[in-house]
Write a structure and sequence with these properties.
single chain; 129 residues; alpha+beta; six-stranded antiparallel β-sheet; 3 helices; globular
């Protein structure tokens, strides 16, 4: 499963080797034990990837073949493609902009998407130097 952690300055994407249900259950138990409120709802999340990533077309084909319901791609503009994921939003309250979004899809798409996102972060840091 993929976990997107949203903070004030952006987000971080990581792979978790757990089922969505197990992760949510652990998060609920943790919230109960520490006495914090928790807001959970089905949702969608989106982020941008540069259009010039070398393996982007392979991702498009894999999504069509394996998992067209969980993830969609659409042109953002001439330089970026928008990746939209269906999953679950977890935050401290309903109005929070900070929280965690988790989404389960085929493992190959999860790993491939993570690799492309990591490649885009390396490209962005090289450009900013």
């Amino acid at each position: 499963m993929l976990k997107l952690t949203y903070i004030e300055t952006g987000f971080y994407l990581e792979y978790l080797a757990k089922s969505l249900e197990d992760w949510v259950q652990e998060r609920v138990v943790l919230a109960l034990r520490v006495g914090e409120s928790l807001y959970i709802e089905p949702s969608t999340a989106a982020f941008l990837l540069p259009m010039d990533l070398p393996d982007l077309e392979t991702l498009v084909m894999e999504i069509r073949r394996l998992d067209p319901e969980s993830i969609s791609l659409s042109a953002g503009d001439a330089e970026y493609i928008e990746v939209s994921l269906n999953g679950t939003w977890v935050s401290l309250n309903a109005d929070s902009d900070e929280g965690v979004f988790v989404a389960a899809m085929s493992h190959s798409i999860e790993f491939f998407l993570l690799k492309l996102w990591q490649d885009s972060q390396v490209s962005a840091s090289v450009l900013s130097e």
